[in-house]
Structure formats: C-alpha cells, structure tokens
Amino acid sequence: MHLIEKFLGKQGTPTGGGLPMPAKEFLAWAGAKEIILDDRYSSDQQQVVFKPYRVFDRCWGRPDEPRGLAHFLHSILDAIPAWQSCYLWCRNGSWSPTTKSEGDLLIATVYRGAGIPERWQGAVQFHRPDLAAVLAVLFVHCAFGWSTWEDVFLVPDHAKLIIGVDHHEVVWAHFAGAEDLAPFVQRMAAAGYNLPTDLPDETFRPLPWIKTRTDQPGAAPNGGPATPVSDSELTGGPPSVS
Description:
Blueprint: H1 2-8, E1 19-22, H2 23-32, E2 35-37, E3 48-50, E4 57-61, H3 66-79, E5 85-95, H4 102-114, E6 120-127, H5 131-144, E7 152-156, E8 161-166, E9 170-175, H6 181-190
Antiparallel strand pairs: 1-6, 2-3, 4-9, 5-6, 5-7, 7-8, 8-9
C-alpha cells in the first residue's frame, strides 16, 4: 500500500497537476533548446534528440522488482541538475495505449491521476511538486511498455539532458554537453547504479563506452558490477539513438 499511496495518492486522489501542452507549442519550445524530433528516422520511429546531434549518451538497465524500480527512477530524477519543471513526451506525442491489456488499463489509470487527458496528442508539463505523478508515469511505462510507442522522454526546464524510458528495458540519459555527463554518472553510482558492463540485449549496436570486465565490448545481457571508466571515456558515446 505504501508504494500505491506514494504514486497515486491516498484515498485515490490525484497527486499531479500535469499541464497538457499542444505538440506544436512543445516542439517550438524544444526547438529553441536545440531539441527536435529525430529526422534521421521515419515518422513512426522518431524520438526527441539534440540537434546538432550529440554523442554524450549513457544508459542503465532498470530493475524488475517494483520497489527497486521505484527507487531507481527516483534516483534518475535526483541525478538531474536542479530543475523546477519538466516536460514528458510520449513517442510521437501520442498518449494512447496501443492495446487493451491489463498493463494498458493501469497506464490509462495513472494518466488520469497525473492529469493527462485521454488520447492526448502533445506534451505534458509537470512542476517539482508533481514529482510523484512524474514517477508514476515513468513507472508504468517501464513496467508495461513493450514497443517504441510506449517510449517516454523527459526534458527538464533547463534542457541540459533528455531522459528516455526505452522499451528495451533501459533508461537513457542524453546530454547536451560533456560537462554534465560525468556528474550524472557519479550521482547514479552513489545511489547504487553503476554503468552496465554488457550490452542490454542483442539488438543494440556496440556502445564504445561499455567495457566488460575483460575490457572488451559487451554482447551478453546486462549484469554484474561496472568497471570504472575514465573521464575521457565518459565523453565518447554514440549518437542519441537506441
């Protein structure tokens, strides 16, 4: 019950004050921050990325156990440089469940509690007091998202990075510049989450910054303690696309 109350509020009351923002308005705001829909891919594969394209990306495998997942996501939000508001963008701006599974019913229920209108097309802005609502939305997408359509992106007001919840069971951090990458990685490590030592799954292309315990690019499922990475290696990731 403690986790349910934490995410959805006591006695079923909403925890969030999400402010729906039309797609055009959000993309105009994002464009001023050098963030666009990735034009290197077809319209059904687009995600929000920095342009000019950046190579400052890292990802973490997410826990399966609910309490561990909640702590992991809270750690992600805590690692973001100080922010007062953020924007959530579901892949292609569509907040519409793709099936009528039990998971989608839970996602739709969290949407209502977080203030996201049914079948909304656009972004949703949240302020810092709405942290529980942001956690809840990210949580259900981690737990029940299974395709690109369920990928969710978080952009804080300062736009120093983009957080991406990926259906490949990882959470990405895409950085606008190298200066914020190492501090974020260090904050995550302090919370108990080191960088992976292997590729998350066989669909991933090689990631130069992932070093296995034998210092070779990984190809097995994610797991095991992270090998320390030098500051120079921290600034050499792949393009912001998974």
